[in-house]
Every structure is written in structure tokens, then in C-alpha cells.
Amino acid sequence: MKETTISALPPVARHAQSGLAASLRRIGGMVRRHWYVIRSSGPRTLELVFWPLVSMLTWGFLQTHLAATTSLPAKAAGLLIGGVLLWDILVRSQLGFSIAFLEDVWSRNLGHLLMSPLRPIELVAALVVVSLIKLTVAMVPVIFIAHVMFGFNLLSLGLAFIVFFANLTIMSWALGLFSIGCVLRWGMGAESIAWLVVFLLLPISCVYYPVATLPPILQAVALCLPSTYVFEGLRALVLEQTFRGDLMLRAFALNGLWVAACYGLFTYLLAEARTKGSLVQMGE
Amino acid sequence: MHRTAAPAVAVADPPVAVRDLVKVYGDVRAVDGISFDLRAGEITALLGGNGAGKTTTISMLMGLVTPTAGSIRIFGTDLARNRHEALARMNFESPYVDIPMRLTVRQNLEIFGRLYGVRDLRRRIGEVASSLRIEQLLDRGYGKLSAGQKTRASLAKALLNGPDLLLLDEPTASLDPDTADWVRETLELYCRTHAATIILASHNMAEVERLAARVIMMESGRITADSTPAGLIAKFGRDNLEEVFLDIARSRTRTPVAADGQDQP
């Protein structure tokens, strides 16, 4: 027999592939994959904070200017900086979700993932966790600086902040599912959807003005967005010191519909991608 | 001393059973009603020119492409119904599909180990690294490795879960002869000691002659020949597999001089 310097590999033991523990292990593996990327690159981590910080500073100084030069009540200024902070929660969470997926497309790793035992729902769960990690990295410093520089503490909203946060992040995951479904089906030609989809909703989410400002037809569209209710709720809280639980319940109900519809669309587009063969081109 | 894996499947269930497999893209029948079984402990080469249907066939075996018709059973499991159960016992390696460049080799192996449910992962990574001689590469970024080192790291990923079915797409493409020879030795040893089923797509006919116990030739989505390399060479009256490949790919009408009974029309 030919001499070889290669040693034989011992047999391997595998965990069970079904059940909650197996799912959590695979989700943990995917979260770890993105955590390694986040912690390995200082510039990428700074980039997470950069745009929310620039945005907050711009609107914060505008608030300071308006408070000094107009008759607007000072409390109204909280609407601007509160609005921009909440809007950035929606944006950063959606981008965190979508870009984590795109990382595997860019690195040509998607083929390995899709032919591993990782289930689509586990991939989505991992993206949700990664979006929360990225959101925390991006927003905690910005919220702190807003408090120190402009005297606006988003966390002081207490329960209302938790409800606003939950509604915006859930909506961001629905948008993320829509985006990555399009990329799976149509390839990198659809990548721009992942970057732009949330900004399409900026004018009709009524971040800085009441929904009544919009033309009637756009009001109807705006009222289909969970984000619209969050920003209406913020205005009620800042201007009237009233927590509008009814608006938040509507936002949660709409989010339920959005997530169900977008997850259904994601699984449909994934199945279509398998049928059309687009995963093969994307994986290589 | 090497430990040999116990046979992974019952006699009644071949590791891979493909029946009347069809894939249609628009007006094109990329795969046109092929059927074959693969045996444990055997390397089978899937050959064909560009557009022959071998990539589509392998993609369907990996679950990346849904067949238009027909069935694939892997270890007795219907791939269409229970894909993930079968995928846990499979793995894949190709120089054209990367693992994340920004991560170290060890980090990549940790992640894939979790995806495949490998027990005692740290020890397993050590075993794979030792076997493939990549201990010194474990903490280096995958993106910073040379082509040969990347191949070894990718092979480590492919063998991490001890796959019973391993799919390889041109595993030695763009490697120097020494590294390519090393990869072939590794695959031969793994197949022999684990009774693994290996499917190999390659354009290197010398490699196929050395590694494969069986060759399935495809053309226009159909199987045109299915035999041992020596059987095909004898049947076509040629000196080597490359000449046989050219005969089939160019649809030459040279009359076969020997029949082994396995060929399909």
C-alpha cells in the first residue's frame, strides 16, 4: 500500500437534527457567524453608529435653533429628535437584518447554508437576533449622546418606548423578509431593494408631521403602516402627555399581518428560486 | 489505527436513488429522465460537457434546485419531503463556492459544526485539522489563504460532519500538482475508511480514472454511458478516458468494441 502522510479521520458523532435544541444550536451558529464579523472590524462597527449619529446631531441642532428663534413650544422640539431616533430604530433594524443576509450572498456562502440542515425559519430567527445586536450597537451611543447634548432621553418614555421599539423592530423584520425574498428570487439585481425599501416609507410614515398632512389617498396608505401609528403615538405623548394604547394595538395588529404576509412571500420566493435555479447562480 | 465507520444504510436503501429525474427551464430540458443508484464506499464521477446537465443534477441532489419530475431518495429519505434530514448526512466542496472570507478557518468550522450538529465540536475540529494538516491555518483568515490552503480548509468544512454522502465539484481545479495529488489521496482515504458515497464532477479525466470506480456520462440531459472507467475505455476502444469523453461529447460514431451491459441508450 502506498505510504501516505494523511491520517484517517475518526468517525463523528452528531446531535439529533430535530427539536428545539437542534434549532437553537443552528440559530446560535448563524448568530455567531455574524458576531465574529461585527467584532472583527472596528470600522464596520463605527459605520453602524455613524449615520444615526449624524442624523441625530443634525435634527438636534435644528431643534435647538427652532427653540431659540420661533414661538414653537420647546416641548415640540422633542418631536424632531424623538422622531429621528425612532426612525433610525426602524432603519437600522431593517438594514441590520437585510445586510446580515447579504453578507452571505456577497461572500458566496449562501450555497453552503442552503444545503446545510439550517431551516429557513432558523435563518430568519438568526437574522432577527443579528438585527437586534446591530441595533443595540448603533443606537445605544446615539441615544446617550442625544440625552447629554440635547436633553432628550428616549428611555425616559418608559413603557411607551418599549412599545414603540417593539412595533418598529417587528415592522423592520417584515421589510427585511420582503427584501431578502426578492434577492433570493431575482439575485443581486434586487439588492437595492434591501437598501431602499425602508426609505420609500419615510414620507408616508409621518415621522415629523401628522397623518392629516398627507393627501387623502396617501393617508389611506399611511394607515396601513405600523410605523405611522408609532409616530402618531409619539406626538400624542410629547404634545399631550397621553399614551395612545389604541394606536399601539392597531400597530401590533398590522405588524402581525405584515410579518405573516412577508414571511409567506419569503417562503414562496425561496421555493420559486429553487424552481427557477436562481440559487445556483447566486451560490457560485 | 483507523476506525472504520459502520455501514450507514440498509441494503434495501442505496445511499442515493434517482428515478426518472427531469428538470425543465422554460423550453430547455436540462435533465431529461435520468435514473441511477449510487453505492456506499464508492466514488462516482459525473461527467459531461458544458450544458450536459451534470451541474443541474448535482444541484438537485443538494436540494438547491427543485426537480420538475421524478424523485431523489437519499439514505431512503425522500429529498422533496424531508430535505433537512438528508442534508445533515451530506456535505459539499467546490472551489467556486467560498466560506466566509472575513472569518478565520476555526471560526468557519465552529459555525458549520453547529449547523451540522457535530458533537464535541472542539475535539472534532482538532481531529479534522490534524488529519488535513491545517493546524497552523486554524487561526488565519480564510480570505488570506493561498488557493491550496483554501482547498484544504474547504475540505475540512466538507468532512467536519463525517458526511456519508459527499458532493465534490472540481475539487482540484486550479491547484498545483502536489496539492491536487494530496486532495485525491485524502478523498480516497476518506471514502475507504468511512464507506462514504462520493459524487465527483470533474473535467480532469486523469483524476477521474484514478479516483472513480464508476463513471456516469451525460449529454443533453441524458445518461449516455454508465460503467467503470476501464469498462468505458474498453468499450470505446480508446486508450484513456479523455478520448472516450471526446467521443461522447462530440457525438463521434465510433462503434464500441465491448459492452459491459450497464450502458444506457
Q: How would you describe what is shown here?
A:
- In chain A, helix 6 (159-186) runs parallel beside helix 10 (245-276).
- Chain A is built from 11 helices and no strands.
- The longest helix of chain A is centred in the first third of the chain and has 33 residues, at 74-106.
- Chain A is globular and about 80 Å long.
- Chain A has 284 residues and is mostly helical.
- Chain A has helices at 20-40, 42-69, 74-106, 110-114, 120-150, 159-186, 191-200, 216-222, 226-240, 245-276, 278-283.
- Chain A has one domain.
- Helix content of chain A is 76%, strand content 0%.
- The model of chain A has no long low-confidence stretch (mean pLDDT 89).
- By secondary structure, chain B is an alpha/beta fold.
- In chain B, the strands form 2 sheets. A 6-stranded mixed sheet of chain B has the order 6-7-8-3-9-10, with helices on both faces. In chain B, strands 2-1-4-5 form a 4-stranded antiparallel sheet.
- In chain B, a hairpin with a 2-residue loop joins strand 1 and strand 2.
- The N and C termini of chain B lie far apart (45 Å).
- Mean pLDDT of chain B is 87; it is low at 1-7 and 255-265.
- At the A-B interface, helix 1, helix 4, helix 10 and helix 11 of A face helix 1, helix 2, helix 3, helix 4 and helix 6 of B.
